[in-house]
User: Fold these one by one.
Assistant:
Number 1:
Amino acid sequence: MLPLILVLLLALLLFGAGFALKALWWIAVIVLVVWLLGFVVRPGAGSGRRGRWYRW
């Protein structure tokens, strides 16, 4: 009985980790797309220089 519970807990742990890693990959892809769009959609500064689209 104990090995069965351990196997089920391991499967549940691996499923949860896989789901979390997949969600983190999607978040990383979205952040990367927003970051790359920032280079394309930068507003121009008043002195003719291209400004940064972020403040930091």
Note: The chain has a mean pLDDT of 78.
Number 2:
Amino acid sequence: MHSSNSTISARIMRPGLFLAIVTAAQWLARKINERRNCNALMELSDEQLKDIGLSRGQTESDVHVYSRN
């Protein structure tokens, strides 16, 4: 029973570790979403890109971020 108490107290003493894990998970989710959006843009034809006000060059740069929500 003593080892169980020490494990619980160790978890309580490391709130920064939990925050770091949550932050890393949020960053990873954001990067996955950005990649998904980039892939969706790359599938559009030049005419479709023109309809939404973008050129092929703009889709290949990180300057214009398009989010499909």
Note: The mean pLDDT is 80.
Number 3:
Amino acid sequence: MNHPNQTDLERIRQTERRRALVRKALTYMALALWALMVLFPFYWMLLTSVKSYGSYNAERIPALFTLSPTLENYKAAFTAVPLGRYLLNTLVFTVLTTAIMAAVSILAAYAFARLEFKGKNLVFLLFLSLMMIPNELVVITNFATITGLDLRNTFAGLILPSVTSVFYIYLLKENFEQVPDELYKAARVDGTSDFKYLWKVLIPICRPTIVTIIILKIIECWNSYVWPRLVTDNPDLFLVSNGIQEIRENGFGRENIPAMMAAVVVISVPLIVLFLVFRKKIMEGVSRGGMKG
């Protein structure tokens, strides 16, 4: 029986290394192309925001760079329309909604994960069934409720329908249940209350998932459009998403694209910074999903 000699083995290894290098090169090329496709709109938005109105309109073929950038569009974004007020409204709405949502979700998830009460499984099943209801139906119900409570054009009307999330509660419940029962039993033997156990044990262990949920909720609130547009027609309560439409209709006009892009850049920067600062936490929370004992 013939066996490959040393030369044949070395040739096979070189062939495999070449194939591995080719595969890696093709992978990096595909990733680079995908990254270019994803990042190009952001580059185009930033580039357009530093072009003057005249130079932008004078371009027959859109230029991929500019030799005379200007910040006049950013000045106009804060002077032609109350963009600062829109940002402040959105910040208040986002902070309050996210804080209340986090508290509600953590407490509800703990109740379903650790507490025993009659009909718990049935209640949780009915709770999960809410995920099957289309958002459009929920919006209609919420609008009727908020209108009936005379909360239109108020921050309470903006915030209340967004303080619960079935998915986040379900995700946290699954994380809490993955923490060993022995920790809970030992804590109860020592006389630890449920709230103290939640605060001292579960929240620290499940912090990556909680941070991820909070960040996702912040992004959701910052980009919220349909509900704020529906429940508010007072410009003093407009969020940035509604403010963009107001800017387009009554601010710069539909033709001043560079000024519009400057406003969009200002609105997008907080979310980009948030992701860059907490990207490791987001990836950790998404990849782990929870801590197993």
Note: Residues 103 and 192 are 20 Å apart (CA to CA).
Number 4:
Amino acid sequence: MMNPRATWLRTAASFAFVSVLSAGVAATGADKANGPLPQMGFNNWNSTHCRDEFNEAMIRGIADKFISLGLKDAGYTYVNVDDCWANWQRDKDGALQPNPKRFPSGIKALAAYVHERGLKFGLYSSAGTSTCEPLQENRGFPGGLGHEKQDAATFASWDVDYLKYDNCNNNKVDAHKRYLDMANALRATHRSIFFSMCEWGENKPWLWAGKPPVSAQSWRTTGDITDTYASMLKIFKQNVVLDKYASLGHWNDPDMLEVGNGGMTDVEYQSHFSLWSIMAAPLLVGTDLRTIKPDALKILLNKEVIAVDQDPLGVQGKQVRDAKGIHVIVKPMKDGSRAVAVFNETDAAVDASVAASEIGLKATAKYKVRDLWQHTDASGDGSIKVNLPAHAIAMYRISHD
């Protein structure tokens, strides 16, 4: 979240190619334990905000839906709780406490429920004096600024696996210091806690967040997304050009998924999910899984597209064309194949052609072209010709025949 006065609004959107990058910064112990690939899971904010329905019963129900809907089998791992989980004030010793009405059983018990289902549990805080959701006099719930060691120890004692650390009410304290202090505090607990920086891209975190001494696993590159095509497109364009800064275990984060929330068409949601996947972005479901519609669930469960996001080579797709509303993004895969996305951002249908050379292939060779949404195979010279409706995407995996 961004502005404490505007947490009900969220901004921005975007798409991708790739040249092979070296592994970059060596994986830390936390990277290895949590897995170096982009995080997959759920976050409640986009669907519930701070409404009364956000409580421990809802989160337990979401964890159960991971199993019954097939999300766990598809690779979704984290059940993440966002803002409004905490009590309004710290206790007499300065420790964070859960809101007794929303979470009467406590956070440790909720984390245990999630863990019992073979999933991981995430929590939220802000690198400021208070979080982003305003309660009284524009002040939110207690933030972590100045309490990093105490809060990290609390999170570890509750068996938290993931921390989303926001940027509100930061008193203009240097961002490098604020996020480094929490990174060090998390490491000092000796518990593996995935550190997801939510700095909104204000201080170009892609230049420093993934490197020592911070070594965060992901960092937000943009403002908050909203459930509109314009927002998704804007964020895509901001994030896709940052491919060279991502590496195995350290990811650009263009914010959570809006798939299923109702503000875009299924065609647009398919583009949204494909773009995030080829950009090796976190795949955090932002819709209420208790009421998700079958078409939205089908998009989120496309294992062939998920495999592009989760490819162990650890490369973000690179945009090789951005012209006349057509984007072409290429991502090299560990098995030697290439994932290719062809995206039409315009409001009209377009016939798009992509030469094999543009993808980085030899036109004289023969290739198998797998359509990741139609789930069909074709043979050819590696070139692509496709009719794309407005706002639509085509996504392929191309390998030697």
Note: The longest helix spans residues 175-188.
